[in-house]
Amino acid sequence: MNKKIKLTPPAQKSKAGKLRIAEVPRTLRELALERLRAAIVEFHFKPGQRLIERDLCEQLGVSRSVVREVIRHLETEGLVHTIPHQGPSVAKLDAETATQIYELRALLESAAAQAAAAVANANDLAKMSNALDLIADAYARKDFHTVLGATNGFYEAMFMCAHKSVAWDMVQRLNGRISWLRSLTVSSVDRGSTGPMQMQKILGAIKIGDGPAAAAACRDHLATAGEIAKRLIAAEEDA
Amino acid sequence: MNKKIKLTPPAQKSKAGKLRIAEVPRTLRELALERLRAAIVEFHFKPGQRLIERDLCEQLGVSRSVVREVIRHLETEGLVHTIPHQGPSVAKLDAETATQIYELRALLESAAAQAAAAVANANDLAKMSNALDLIADAYARKDFHTVLGATNGFYEAMFMCAHKSVAWDMVQRLNGRISWLRSLTVSSVDRGSTGPMQMQKILGAIKIGDGPAAAAACRDHLATAGEIAKRLIAAEEDA
DNA sequence: GATTGTAATATGGTATACAATCTAAGTCAA
DNA sequence: TTGACTTAGATTGTATACCATATTACAATC
């Protein structure tokens, strides 16, 4: 009965570089933030579920101050919704908002793809290609968690080589809000074939420097993802 | 010890009667947030300036907890930058980021304008038209603060009628980060004529339902604004 | 069974304490 | 003067206790 939700993901080793002097001091708050965010996007808390401060204190092993600050952060990110005197809860996603988010991703990602097609070098292309390999591999193993991670890797490489870090931040934040849709989408039937295929098409267009084609491929990719999501959310709201 | 996960998640049965007290209780935190944000975007704190918690407590008349939570919020919004154990300061804007922000605004606003052209009704058009009148009037009085506010009003009406509230949130957040550039831009010479003229062009295209023209006008508008901003930021970094 | 009163709970907010860390001023040596 | 070292004060990070108020759960009542 004691739902001691494991807010303790695998302790990650800091990949301390060689001769790294400026080791940025990590505060407890940052750790708590990451864990709570991970717990939400990985669906350990369901949308609409109340987040009770004192329980979170216990589960995270930190004080109320820290929990409150972390909640303020996640609230601003759109992952948590707070009603005054009622407290925070995991943000719910309505169909309208989800649609807008998929539209925005299409807009942002296609623009990034177009720009990437104009400037990508061999190194950038290799990164994206590797990510695609990883995705195919993970799909074969039905390791959907890795699929999502590698997909992020693919797009991050694309946005970074297009020098669009601000846009990438926005996409990441949007992705957080639709994390449960993404999870369900990647694990839906036949997504293992169409998804990578469409991303391959994006990469192919970038490789030959065909910006418009890359943008179109992005829009295609997002359109199908958005379609699946729309069905999922309709099924959800039906229940 | 206490794991009562009841708390009625799906309560909230809003049987809104006419006697409904619609006024959501405002927390002290929200007030403090608005004031501090206003102080930053209105340039009462300069970029790079340290924000010392205890000073803010005094100035706002609230406790440290509230100030810290507010700072966490503004940090997530990108208006404040915090270095661990060194504290928060007003975020600085580099040329690269500013460029990206103007690009993003062009992308988002042109998409919204295109969508608006397809769906705007008389009421929407009236709102935008009124905003334009307000802008012209304020320019005549050199009341640049009102110019910015009315410009926001114009775009808000446009995004809302296009059903793009999420995109509008993003634009608003981006605008916060370039607030000082916007202030300087609107008050720069001859902006009082070109600015309203370009926006009039956007509205005109929306009015006749010409989506592509509306999008193009938006891009024009942002391009000139971005140009001015680029010069301003170059001058700034020179100093 | 619906309404109402009451107790338990959770939040919003304040104040305080204290260790870790940063900053700045001062000191001393070359 | 410059540079390195020291130290005192300022500031942040975190924890905790406390209170008032709003909300929720629950029992008593009609």
* H/E element sequence of chain A: HHHEEHHHHHHH
As a whole number of angstroms, the C-alpha radius of gyration of chain A is 19 Å
Shape of chain A: globular
Low-confidence stretches of chain A: 1-22
* CATH fold topology of the largest domain in chain A: Four Helix Bundle (Hemerythrin (Met), subunit A)
CATH superfamily descriptor of the largest domain in chain A: GntR ligand-binding domain-like
CATH top level of the largest domain in chain A is Mainly Alpha
Strand share of the residues of chain A? under 5%
Instruction: Count the DSSP helices of chain A.
Output: 10
What's the overall average pLDDT of chain A, rounded?
Answer: 89
* Overall helicity of chain A: 55-70%
Largest sheet of chain A: 2 strands, antiparallel
Q: Which structural class should the secondary elements of chain A be placed in?
A: mainly alpha
Task: Explain the overall architecture.
Two copies of one chain form a homodimer. In chain A, helix 2 crosses helix 3. Chain A has two domains: 63 residues, Winged helix-like DNA-binding domain superfamily/Winged helix DNA-binding domain (Arc Repressor Mutant, subunit A, Orthogonal Bundle); 144 residues, GntR ligand-binding domain-like (Four Helix Bundle (Hemerythrin (Met), subunit A)), CATH 1.20.120. The first copy, chain A, is mostly helical. In chain A, strands 1-2 form a two-stranded antiparallel sheet. Helices cover 69% and strands 3% of the residues of chain A. Chain A is globular, with a radius of gyration of 19 Å. The N terminus of chain A is likely disordered. In chain A, a hairpin with a 3-residue loop joins strand 1 and strand 2. Chains A and B meet through helix 3, helix 4 and helix 7 of A and helix 3, helix 4 and helix 7 of B. Chain B binds a DNA duplex (30 and 30 nucleotides) through helix 3.
